[in-house]
Amino acid sequence: MSVILCTAGYDHTIRFWEALSGICSRTIPHPDSQVNRLCISPDKRFLAAAGNHAVKLYDIKSSNPNPVLTFDGHTGNVTGVAFHCEGKWMVTSSEDGTVKIWDTRTGSVQRNYTHGVPVNDVVIHPNQGELVSCDRGGNVRIWDLSENKCSHQLIPEGEDVSVASVTVASDGTLLCAGNNAGNVYVWRMVQTSHLTTLLPVTKFTAHNTYITRVLLSPDVKHLATCSADHTARIWAVDPTSTLTSTPSQPPAPNYLLTPAPPHVLQSPHNNPNNPANTTNPPINMQALHAPAPAPVPETSAKIAEPTPFPLETTLMGHQRWVWDCAFSADSAYLVTACSDHYARLWELGSQSIIRQYNGHHRGAVCVALNDTALS
């Protein structure tokens, strides 16, 4: 399978799609709960599905609908999941207030880090030695795996708003976070010796309501934001202007860098409320240029405040909340998952819907896409 595309949500199913035809090629039942997040292993062998309390690991090439392994240890909804670049371990975040690292061979917990409040997302830094997580208390934390502790606690100045999503550039240069006020925060990540230094770059208003997902493209030229306002937006990443503020802008705000706790707290905090890019060459997706609906026009609404992340386009056509998104390996396409039951494949150059994936009976809230060529 050169292109693996799957979606899931509140109808308790995981669906695999043929990207070209839009046909659902396989459906896996997930009766225990809704599925909150999906992640495909770098070798394309396994799919991790995060639900309530547990993560189930499925064999992508097998027709067996049962999971090959279940990671059971959280006490609330699992909100984030990511694989180590070689698949040796997996990290998860949860509303129970913890971030856990799992051995993917045995399903056992290797490490447990505590936020103290529900955790909304977690990603792995490309160096594979750090984790970045965010929580409902408005914090972004960086965990140093070699030191086994929190090395940075980032608190957006003057705000105590839940941070819904974080994303790290594939080259490790940028960290972006989006919160429930519709704001995006950007930090420059500088690697010095064995220490990561973070420099605040900018804050800008991306949406006028909840941001549900932020995601940097594999080529680090675009930032996608998904929102409760029924849209996804694509922002240009300008590497020259993100280093400093432009003359027309006020100085970049001081996003407080709080010293990390001296040790890792181990006691979990239960709050069970309901709710890895690779560098391999991509499969050529130009064959997706099939007849498509008329291009969706860009919105006339503009973000008023100056920003080194100018708005490229607003992807309109979703009927409800847009929960998740995934870039193609060549950064030319974006798949979105929406509460209106649909997943959509967008060609970013033409801002048009190339395919619409119809089959879920309730909201589609997560998507995973891997169209890289394995070496």
Automatic annotation (TrEMBL):
Keywords: Repeat, WD repeat. One of its GO terms (biological process) is regulation of actin cytoskeleton organization. The keyword Heme does not apply. Pfam families: WD40 (PF00400). It comes from the Eukaryota. WD repeats lie at residues 71-112, 112-153, 204-245, 315-356. Coiled coil: none annotated. The keyword Repeat applies. One of its GO terms (cellular component) is TORC2 complex. SUPFAM superfamilies: Quinoprotein alcohol dehydrogenase-like. PANTHER family: G BETA-LIKE PROTEIN GBL, TARGET OF RAPAMYCIN COMPLEX SUBUNIT LST8. Belongs to the WD repeat LST8 family. This is Target of rapamycin complex subunit LST8. It comes from Patellaria atrata CBS 101060.
